[in-house]
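> tool_call: predict_assembly(chains=three)
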Amino acid sequence: MHTPGSNVSGYIVLMIVQIIFLVLFWLFVRYEKAALPAPIEAEDAGSANEHVSKYPQFQDIQVMIFIGFGFLMTFLRKYGYSATGYTLFMAALVVQWAVLMKGFLHMEGGKISLSLESIIDADIAAAVPLISMGALLGRTTPIQLLCMSIFEVALFAANEYLALNVLSICDCGGSITVHAFGAYFGLAVALMLRPASDQNDAGKHEGANYVSDIFAMIGTTFLWVYWPSFNSVLAEGSGGERAILNTFLSLAAATVTTFVVSALVSHENKLDMVHVQNSTLAGGVAVGTVCNLLLGAHGAVLIGIIAGTVSVLGYRYLTPWLTRNLRLHDTCGVHNLHGMPALISAIASAIVASMVTPDDYQSELQDIFPAMVGNNGTTTKIMGGLGRNASSQAGYQLFGIAVTLLIAIGGGVLAGAVMKYTSFRNLAKDEQHQDEQYWEVPAVENKEE
Amino acid sequence: MHTPGSNVSGYIVLMIVQIIFLVLFWLFVRYEKAALPAPIEAEDAGSANEHVSKYPQFQDIQVMIFIGFGFLMTFLRKYGYSATGYTLFMAALVVQWAVLMKGFLHMEGGKISLSLESIIDADIAAAVPLISMGALLGRTTPIQLLCMSIFEVALFAANEYLALNVLSICDCGGSITVHAFGAYFGLAVALMLRPASDQNDAGKHEGANYVSDIFAMIGTTFLWVYWPSFNSVLAEGSGGERAILNTFLSLAAATVTTFVVSALVSHENKLDMVHVQNSTLAGGVAVGTVCNLLLGAHGAVLIGIIAGTVSVLGYRYLTPWLTRNLRLHDTCGVHNLHGMPALISAIASAIVASMVTPDDYQSELQDIFPAMVGNNGTTTKIMGGLGRNASSQAGYQLFGIAVTLLIAIGGGVLAGAVMKYTSFRNLAKDEQHQDEQYWEVPAVENKEE
Amino acid sequence: MHTPGSNVSGYIVLMIVQIIFLVLFWLFVRYEKAALPAPIEAEDAGSANEHVSKYPQFQDIQVMIFIGFGFLMTFLRKYGYSATGYTLFMAALVVQWAVLMKGFLHMEGGKISLSLESIIDADIAAAVPLISMGALLGRTTPIQLLCMSIFEVALFAANEYLALNVLSICDCGGSITVHAFGAYFGLAVALMLRPASDQNDAGKHEGANYVSDIFAMIGTTFLWVYWPSFNSVLAEGSGGERAILNTFLSLAAATVTTFVVSALVSHENKLDMVHVQNSTLAGGVAVGTVCNLLLGAHGAVLIGIIAGTVSVLGYRYLTPWLTRNLRLHDTCGVHNLHGMPALISAIASAIVASMVTPDDYQSELQDIFPAMVGNNGTTTKIMGGLGRNASSQAGYQLFGIAVTLLIAIGGGVLAGAVMKYTSFRNLAKDEQHQDEQYWEVPAVENKEE
């Protein structure tokens, strides 16, 4: 039965959160210097332009977050309002929170500097709970989702700081810190919210129809075309172009592989829209951590082939197995699109890092593997870097993914426990995967027409 | 009954208009100098590139106009061809007309200079009649709409010239000159075309279905993600980055607020897709006029919260009241998405302007408040500007919106009178809100499938 | 009857192709120099940025290829999975192949240089078989399409090399080398695959429904808004801005004309979605070859008016005639969107070229008409160019389109013959225009909801 009361208090809490954000912005956030008018004597319009040179890539990422994720999740035939609407709601809340959270970790003089980079970082952070939402799609209330996202983004910011600034791993496209974190956090929540063993069947509204599947392809294609922007936006120097090229090739190879493997393993050798909508993108995830490295075109293509294969096989065999045996439901299969491909990316990063010599990256070593600066091929430290050698860096890459998994799963278990056992309203089985619980839905549908 | 004759003559008139445009282009329009080949001795490829540095933002605005507006209006379940089609038709006609109209106001040596800026301005001008179309959606013929748009854009260009060049108000994102003008012009037309008092009920085809609502979300999300480009494209210097940041934050805050307020005021506390599709964007309108000013992040967030609240309350209470009491129908609720948020923006601009000191904007005062140049804190005029002081500028901002409302409403009443009382064909009540009157619609729908 | 066996072997062949690509990338492809880390002493971040200054236009083209083409073809009511899916599959395969093929034609030191330009060229190449696919839509298996595309892209690369590098014609937006080639190749294949004379009726599933027509408008509008990027991406110097302006104006004029002519010639003077979806874009094709020339705004508008008119009349009269008399089916009407407008563009290029004087293009003559460098108005050769004069260049333009048609039609006949008479599985009449043959399609559709 519908209990409006609990909704109302949840929404009011979210409004209070928004007002707290307002106060925090007022107290702590200031425009960065380049976004302030220059003194009259130092007029220089050019530098302002250069400062926002990443604006087109930012806009691509905006499309990925709001249209890409939103429409990718419209494949459920009775959950399209929620897919597009909650994506908008969650992303709008999270971007503000991410500006604050990531700002607190990099304050200067007690103030957070607001710049184009802040909102690029915020959009990337928004991807994290959206990935988790994919695992849970249709099985939570919006209040549960939104509260989860606030906690998750704080934990994400902390883990990212640990991985990049403390452990000094490379993760240009965020496969470790964003994709693996979001996927395994979401899966851990899903495990906590798993159904009783007598309710382990698919929800009666869980599934696509012809039109909802085509709506989902809007999401897929926009994610596909703009993924090079996501992976390259934080790359510096020539790494930006490599990130674009490697991501493009990996996606292309993963796509071809996805179609082939989908046809080979599916019922009657027919193509499966779930694979096409999702596994085609696995190449973008799997190349993420290493996208700015000297993979070579063949390296990128190889990663794409592996990712497409693993992802389709995951959808075909692993997900049903997890559902059957662990009652671990994963509505969008984020484990196959984000989880496993991110693990592939982490492993690839260890392999590539283990073969790095300082000469390879010349002036860019500082940006890409800062901890290796000062390693002149021996273990001697020079020039102020940590002088980490290649195998050591490879080890740190693996340590980075391990820590990320630990924190993500731990955080997800905690979040799931709170969502399940505290006063949050939970959805009953037959309330799942349909908009009607939380949305006004047109009633007369199909009748008068 | 269908009277094809009147259609034919209307379409022929539009073809003649197109041919007149051709002649005017031939007589008056020339490429700007930077779009002409440089003499051999002065070869300089770099400058040409810099000249089109706003091209990515132009493309974002193109998406807003053609996809954003077009799909936002597909929410009517039997009017999707018209929503997307007339948007394309109207925008294609208006952009040409706007290049000419705005060109005539800024001719040099009897010629209009054609540049990237011309077509950016033209796309912005196209937003004006598209906003008005939202108020009228489904209740006019395409011929009425197109003819209206030609008149409206000419009046818009004149009003914009008056507001920006004569009154010298600031309106970086166009909330006053574009959103308020388009909304109140459209509402004035709607008032003139209002139904007889015995036909004041909603049209029988007026309403969404499940799929049309999701199509509309394509429009919403693209408008959302690219709105920072719309607001910032005409900003100069560091104002560009502020416009991006402020717009982004205002949209995010308006979105969170929209969801919360929608749930709180709606039937059974369920979310309403009309609010989600529209009020989430009110933050972009409400921050428009002031987006390049030194609002601070908190200023932008505050404006977003106010705009989201006002917009949802407008949809919930004001629009039904206007329909009931004034027979003022507003199909898309442009009053709530464009009208009132634009008023908020104008008021905000007066408040912010009243607190400006010349030191705040340093070298950018000339761009942002040109009439205040020469005001050194007293009323003494120096340095060639008008030396307008802060309270005076605030007064001009309010005068600017007042004049705009007057011209828009006057123009709309005139246009509506012409559309109603001259030989234009008008739609009968039961012909409204459906494509069939003007489009070939597949007949067998749903049967054989 | 469904014969899965033949599918399986086809898919396996495509996987082998993907693996061959992997090997070729490994053997031959290397990052361009600017995508490699700079030596420490020569640190210069700026140059890397400038090198990828066309990245935003690349992304626009990505949207055109994957979303634009994909969704434009979703108008068939039972073929939306195939339209969006095969577009993704084909483009992902072709972009890799195009990097290799075009690379082999421009190798340096036995290696192919991989750069942003490579993948821009690859995306453009992907348009070619996608255009052909439009002619064949619904009447081939995916295996036939994919194999066709591999052959077609190789032939396209050869013809393009011939036209641009040997014949030295101008074709900035690719109307000759891309649009005419793709359209006539596809039509030639369609002619080879034409039905027996007792099966010449429209397929029973061939047609749109209300929702599929709106999906198709997503494709139309994205192609419309980003077409200036497609036409301008390879332009240099001030030609880039001219290409943007001319394409924009031509599209606008074609759109207005399309609506008018559609209403005038259609049944009951109602607008036809097929025209709106396609002929509005004819202006982009028809201005393609000449988009960077000094057309003047009126030249661009005139071309748009002609293209819109020809395209609508083609859909209304020519296509049915071809179907009836030659049994030449053209599902999307690519002859009207790409074929005839490309011929218009070629003719326009001859006219414009015939009037060129060396003074017109100053320092840009080298880029635009390299063969005319050294023509000082007489036939005397100076400065190392071929010294081709204006009428001669005009002749070459016409020769270029003639050769292209010959190669495209010859290649299409050959490809069609192979697809029809070898061991490829062909679709029977009643298997056409529906996804079910090759896709898992939700069965319960509409029932439980």
